[in-house]
Amino acid sequence: MLRFVSLAREMPVKRAPEDRAQDFHEIYREFAALKAAQQASRCSQCGVPYCQTHCPLHNNIPDWLRLTAEGRIREAWERAQETSTFPEICGRICPQDRLCEGNCVIEQAGHGTVTIGAIEKYITDTAWEEGWVLPVMPQIERSESVGIIGAGPAGLACANMLRRAGVQVTVYDRHDRAGGLLTYGIPSFKLEKHVVQRRVAQLSAAGVEFMLDTNIGVDVTFEAIRGRHDAVVIATGVYRSRDLDIDDSPASGVIRAIDYLTAANRIDFGDEVPDFADGKLDARGKRVVVVGGGDTAMDCVRTAIRQGAQSVKCLYRRDRDNMPGSRREVENAEEEGVEFVWLSAPTGFCGHVPGIARDGDNASFCNAHTGAGGGDNPVLTAIRVRPMRLGAPDISGRQMPEPTEGADYHEPAEMVIKALGFEAEELPRLWGANGLEVTLWGTVRASHETHRTSLPGVYAVGDIVRGASLVVWAIRDGQEAAAAILADLSATQTVVAQ
C-alpha cells in the first residue's frame, strides 16, 4: 500500500468521444486485474478514512481496496457487499467526485484521489462473472408480509434486506419494468440495463413478488394494500417536473426531461414509442437546448448527442463552479460535443404557426411572458435567453444569479428540454391516504432514523422523503427502513406471544 507517492492516479480508459457518441454503451473500459490492483495500492490506509465517512452507506472502502491490491478479489467483493445492496450500480453512477473520492485524504494532499468508483465496479463485475453473487435465499421463512410501493433503488434495497430475513415481500410499481429511474431515467451509457435487470431477476427468483403496471389509486387503493400487508413502504420517488418560471405555452418542441429520457430508454429496450417515432421525442437533426445544470440535464444533453442532434447546448443560470451536477459528467459531455452556455436563463419561447411566413430563425411571434403564443399549434424555432451575473450568496452560500437587463438574445432551437429537477406528487390526494402527513414541499413526512410516517405500519424512503437526491441515499434509506421494519415486526410478535 501507500504507493500514491510513486504511482500516479489513473482511471479506466474511456472510449473515444467520436465512438461512444454513436451508441448507448457504457463509456469506460474495464480495469484489468493488474491495473485495479495497482490503483487500489495507492490507498494510504489512513487512520481517519474520510472516504468511508462521506459515503452515505459508510462502505468499508479502505478494507476492500487493500484486499484488491493483494489480489484477494473475492474477499474484496464480500466486504463491499456487506454494507451496499447494489455495489455494481453505485460503482457506476455514484458521483464519487463529490463523495468518497472527493474526500480522499491523498487527494487533499495533492497526490490525486484513489479511483474508488472504478475499482468498486471492477470488483463487483468480477463477482458476477465468477458466479460469486448468490441468490437472496432466507434461512427461515416468516409469515409477515410487507408491501413496497415503488420498484426504484429505495424500494429494491428494502425488498432485498427484508427478503434476506425471510419476510414475504410484494413490490408494486406503475411501470412495466422494475428499477424506477435506474431503468427509465438513467441512460445506458452510464448504467447498462442488464446490470439492473439481473438484480431484479435475482430478487424475483428469491421470492419477491412484483406487481407491475399497477397504479396506486387507480388499479388498487392504498388502503387495500395496507389491508394486505403487515407493513407498507412508500418508495415512489419524485416524478413531477419543475417548470420554468415563465408562462410555458404548449409550443411543439418544448418537452420534459422525464418524458425524453423515458422514451430514449424504452427505445433502447426495443419498445415502440409513438412520440419518438413521430419525432416529438427524437433529437435527430435538431438544434437542441437543455435548460438545467444537474445530473438529469447531463443525461439529456448526452442522450441528444447520441440521437444525432445537429447541435446541443446546455443553458445554466450560474457558472461552472456553482453547478450541482457531477464535474466528471460535464467533462464527458464537453468531450462528446455539448456546448455549455453558463450564466444564462430562458425568458420565453419563439415559434411560428405552419403556414405563417417567417424570416429565417426569427419567429413570427416571440413573447417573453406568454410563451410562443400566436396560434393553436405553434412550432418552436428559438428560445429567448437572458445573460445572468452572480450576486450575493443565498442562505446556502451559493451566489444568487441576477439578470442582465437589455441583453436578451434568441438561441435557435427545434427542441428545448426542461431539466430543472423534480417535485413530489400529491400522494394524499392521489391515493386518498387520509392522515398521511407531508411537508411544505409535498414530500412525505417520516423519521430519518426509523422512516416511520404518521400512519401506523407505513414507512417512507428515498426521494419521496428527501426530495430529488442521489441513488446511494435512496439505497441507504431502503436498507435502514428494512431494519426498522424487522425490529417493529419482532416487537409486535413479542407482544402477541405475551
From TrEMBL:
Keyword Nucleus: no
MF (Gene Ontology): 4 iron, 4 sulfur cluster binding; metal ion binding; oxidoreductase activity
UniProt key word Magnesium: no
UniProt keyword annotations, A-Z: 4Fe-4S, Iron, Iron-sulfur, Metal-binding, Oxidoreductase, Plasmid
Domain of life of the source: Bacteria
Residue ranges of domain FAD/NAD(P)-binding in the record: 146-349
Gene3D superfamilies: Alpha-helical ferredoxin, FAD/NAD(P)-binding domain
Domain Dihydroprymidine dehydrogenase: 20-131
InterPro entries the record matches: DPD_II, FAD/NAD-bd_sf, FAD/NAD-binding_dom, GltD-like, Helical_ferredxn
Protein name listed in UniProt: Dihydropyrimidine dehydrogenase
Lineage: Bacteria, Pseudomonadati, Pseudomonadota, Alphaproteobacteria, Rhodobacterales
